[in-house]
Amino acid sequence: QRMRSIKDIDVKDKLILVRNDLNVPLAEGAITDDTRILASLPTIIHMRTEGAKAIVLCSHLGRPKGVDPKLSLAPVAERISSSLGIPCPLVELEKLAEAIDSVKEGDTSPVFLLENTRFYPEETKNDPAFAEKLAKAAGRPFDVFVNDAFGTAHRAHASTEGVTKFISPSVSGFLLAKELEYLDGAVNNGERPMAAIVGGSKVSSKITVLEALLDKCDKVVIGGGMVFTFLKAKGLSVGSSMAEDDFVETAKAVMAKAEASGKQLILPSDIVVADAFSADANTQVVPATAIPDGWMGLDNGPEATKEISAALADCKTVIWNGPMGVFEFDAFAKGTFAIVDVLEEITAKGACTIIGGGDSVAAVEKSGKADKMSHISTGGGASLELLEGKVLPGVAALADKEDVPPAPASASSPERLRAEVEAQ
């Protein structure tokens, strides 16, 4: 999906609107995970370094129904301010022009954060009038729009897609470009052998991405609750494990497709089962072919882990979306964390490992090995839709690279230095 990047354009003296994904978790008004804030900083720093006139950030937080003080972006503005070491005032949309006009002479590339875009119902409706209001909120049209919000790129909202009709150029930030480079690039051009690990509780929520990855990958590992729909499709008893009867035929079709195309579809050979969905339930390890009545599968067994590790050992590209078990409970976390360990090993040997959003990201972060992976996606639904091969509206709205005014040479380049010397 070709698009213009912030690197392609000159931002000096430009008034810039940036759509970030600052939808961070809060507990009693305090930020509990600032990953998305930190991921947004490189684009902001680049624009300030290159001399932008003013930078206005916008984002949603949660799903408010109208104005909700508990979902104010005030804590986010404070964290951005402390991270950049400059003020980052939180401004209401209607007061932005006044705030920008009050910037003092000599203030270089000030940064503002607009209040939660979803305080306006028109945002999620992609209302054209609201999109135009946002595009002109500074008292005049913004010179540049930057979409750096991969986590919402699958939504056609006013602040992700609508504003691009009123601001030109509209380009990607570093984070959005990086997400597309890894996720889209790996699926379509990844080095082989390529494997996908697809976990999670339901076949119904993952069937589209599962089929798409089966087309692209040499090996597909099935994990989590969706395993039991596949075991049921093979005619096996699954005890009281979660299984979707409506998707048994779908699972049969996936297995038949894998066999016909010569792809390796890997299901666990043994299962950790429990007599209740509880952290302190009684457990035992049983073959996948012999799950007893009244017991539910909640994790992969040790033999399954060995087989999966062996299958991934020679892979050059691995995409992981969804855990192997209920890793939130220590008793059922070994299968998931074993995947983290093997991905750490093959990454160190040069493989490209991509953690494609959702609970698998939480698992890697809980393991303390997030920095050992090639890439961890900041998107949940956006990651899934991209892996499914869908075009993301927030990406499609960014124009192609052709006919873009080039950015000047960077401040550190020989060309820039030579020009400055000759001008003296």
What does this structure look like?
The protein is an alpha/beta fold. It is about 35% helix and about 15% strand. It is built from 14 helices and 17 strands. A six-stranded parallel beta sheet has the order 5-6-4-1-7-8. Strands 11-10-9-15-16-17 form a six-stranded parallel beta sheet, with helices on both faces. Strand 5, helix 3 and strand 6 form a beta-alpha-beta unit. Helix 1 (about 35-50) crosses helix 2 and helix 6 (about 205-215) runs parallel beside helix 8 (about 250-260). The longest helix is centred in the middle third of the chain and has 16 residues, at about 175-190.
Strands of the largest sheet, in order across it? 5-6-4-1-7-8
Regions with pLDDT < 50 over 5+ consecutive residues? 401-424
Q: How many strand segments?
A: 17
Judged by helices, strands and strand pairing, the structural class is alpha/beta
* Coarse shape: elongated
Largest sheet: 6 strands, parallel
Bin the strand percentage.
15-25%
The termini sit apart by 43 Å
Helix content: 25-40%
Radius of gyration: 24 Å
Mean pLDDT across all residues, rounded?
90
| Number of H- or I-type helical stretches | 14
